[in-house]
Automatic annotation (TrEMBL), chains A, B:
Belongs to the zinc-containing alcohol dehydrogenase family. Quinone oxidoreductase subfamily. Keywords: Fatty acid biosynthesis, Fatty acid metabolism, Lipid biosynthesis, Lipid metabolism, Mitochondrion, NADP, Oxidoreductase, Transit peptide. It is an enzyme of class 1 (oxidoreductase). It comes from Marasmius oreades (fairy-ring Marasmius). This is enoyl-[acyl-carrier-protein] reductase. One of its GO terms (biological process) is fatty acid biosynthetic process. GO terms for molecular function: enoyl-[acyl-carrier-protein] reductase (NADPH) activity. GO terms for cellular component: mitochondrion. The lineage of its organism: Eukaryota, Fungi, Dikarya, Basidiomycota, Agaricomycotina. Its main location: mitochondrion. It comes from the Eukaryota.
């Protein structure tokens, strides 16, 4: 027989200090954010768990949240330190909304979650840009597949915002059957690419519009490889011949769902390609222009215009339904049917001082804010030696 | 015993010739329309009735229909004459969509409709600008109240387009309870005034916006007399203080229904006053500007934008439901709870020649098209001596 040490001895969570990317008041990311180091977490109180973040992405909405212009606000954290920033006297906001974490300790009364379980966040704005946090059992959703089953860390870390948005927009507004067509603009956005992939899984055909660019043929190839039925530019969209082309492709079948993350003319133009009783679902406004549509589309063609916000969906749906959705997405990911986004990890190393780490974080977020990073950036925060 | 002649002898419908306002191809109302005189109707075939129009309004959509730019198209009539215009060889479009008629003769197999019954049109674009027409029993809905019960001809003639639109917009998109608030622009439109009155009957509060004008205080008094809770101008609407005022009036209760017949800024501004999970329903675009709304209202406040078109509602709902609605509206009208629109009757006299009558019709429609008639104009066409 092999002699095995009690697992508890190998847990080092209590031996290492933690780090978090925090802010105390809203402002530009290059000024508001800093990194603090704080003491190891105490054992979790009843019905809570201590989790250690593996990877946590920078989403565009995180920047708006830190700037204070996002409708979903984090609560102040006062349990990081016994004194100074993050303490009861000086509570802080821990940044980050999405992330993959591993359970490192469970409190009394917790069932269904054990040490080593991978979890994603259910509660919005938990503050995922940190090493370890103590959270309620209902703040997380257990992943059915762990790393052993081939789900990558990047998959797990980017599961609760974009893939859920893509899935639910295809599912919530209209009953689509195999062979039905949908149309979208901003098709090369993170969500747009997931829409293409999930539509393909469901047997739906997609007409995808993107901005014209130098390397257009590469992008078209990439989207087609993901499963896009048609990929065109906004120049094609505004051309009079588009109506005839679409009719030819669909065999005259009405398109009844359009997904919009751009606004302005690229939104109006896809709405005009829809048939009667169709739904236009907006989840972004990258052009920063309003959604401007002819009233006649609403009156005579019975267009309905909706918005989709995963945060609201999450609030309005049961944990059971959310866990089932996460399960479905995780399965598709392990089957290779849903790609993880192109990404780069930004590691905050153990040996980085708080000052160095703060500069690194601010500089990265500045580049993201300026749109200079084509890939999804994921934070990997290392614990700090005690 | 009193000797009574068989009623049939007193029917003079077969002794007088008919007239209709017709067009043979789409064009401007001042050129396309003319009046023709045609032979008396033969007795109605089985399951049809002969009706005689009492009054028929000019609605804005009639002008668009004649111009050929309205989505609801009439069919050609080929049963007016045995030769010439309106015959099988030269079918014509009879203009007019709405109207009040009296049954003058019933075919075999018709039940529930007798001579003297007042009916309104169920089928769109029947061609109501005429003296007598032969129609199917399902083309009409019987009015439960006749003239003896105090329903005026003007009420009956203007029942199936505007009052139904107002009623259904308050009924179809959201469950409103007594004390709830709604908001509308173009509040002095025909539909807007009906919305005010029906809201009052239902115990709903209304915030009503109108264009500023010289006789504003008169208009405000008129709308308040109809039951408007608040009447303001678009200048008030664009003023920053409006948010606070509305909150004070509603006691902070969310407004969840906005009705829009203007588009452009007056539509966006009322949408911004709505609470979460609200519905913006558009039934017109008097400003001719598109419906332009911030995407954030859709995403973060879950605004849904719909259109309402009574023609579609009518197509999608059962005859039973439509008859019940007409019954409810007629009852409110006889109770004095719903006013007939301000109107003037335009009589085409028996002694007017076709040429004179044609000039009269064209001239009236020109004035309506130019917005020079403040009142609803209702056609009263007299039969012509045989």
């Amino acid at each position: 027989m092999v002699f095995s040490l009690p697992k508890r001895l190998f847990s080092c969570s209590s031996l290492l200090r933690n780090r978090a990317i925090i802010y105390t008041s809203n402002g530009p990311v290059t000024q508001a954010l800093s990194i603090i180091t704080y003491q190891p977490l105490p054992p979790p109180p009843p019905n809570t768990i201590n989790i250690k973040f593996i990877l946590a992405p920078i989403n565009p909405a995180d920047l708006n949240t830190i700037e204070g212009v996002y409708p979903s606000k984090p609560s102040l954290s006062s349990n990081l330190s016994s004194s100074g920033k993050g303490s009861k006297d000086e509570p802080v906001f821990v940044a980050g909304n999405e992330g993959l974490a591993e359970v490192v300790d469970v409190g009394e009364g917790v069932s269904g979650l054990e040490k080593g379980t991978w979890v994603v966040m259910d509660k919005p704005q938990v503050g995922t840009w940190a090493t370890s946090r103590n959270v309620g059992v209902k703040d997380v959703i257990r992943l059915p597949f762990g790393k052993l089953n081939g789900l990558s860390e990047a998959h797990g870390a980017t599961m609760t915002v974009n893939p859920t948005t893509a899935y639910n927009m295809l599912d919530s507004f209209i009953q689509l059957s195999e062979g039905d067509w949908i149309i979208q603009n901003g098709a090369n956005s993170a969500v747009g690419k997931l829409v293409i992939q999930i539509a393909k899984i469901r047997g739906l055909k997609t007409i995808n519009f993107v901005r014209s660019r130098d390397n257009l043929s590469e992008l078209v190839k990439e989207l087609e490889k993901l499963g896009a039925t048609k990929v065109l530019t906004y120049d094609d969209l505004y051309d009079k011949s588009i109506r005839g082309k679409v009719k030819e492709w669909t065999g005259g079948k009405d398109i009844r769902l359009a997904l919009n993350c751009v606004g302005g003319e690229p939104a109006a133009a896809i709405a005009k390609l829809l048939g009667s009783n169709a739904h236009l679902v907006s989840y972004g406004a990258m052009s920063k222009k309003p959604l401007s549509l002819p009233t006649s589309l609403f009156i005579f063609k019975n267009l309905t215009s909706h918005g989709f916000w995963q945060t609201r969906w999450s609030k309005e749906n049961s944990r059971h339904k959310k866990a089932a959705l996460i399960g479905t997405l995780a399965e598709w990911m392990t089957q290779g049917k849903l790609k993880a986004p192109d990404h780069e990890n930004l590691t905050i190393f153990r040996h980085d001082s708080d000052e160095e780490a703060t500069q690194k974080v601010r500089e990265t977020l500045r580049r993201v804010a300026e749109g200079k990073v084509g890939k999804k950036v994921l934070f990997k925060l290392e614990d700090v030696n005690a």
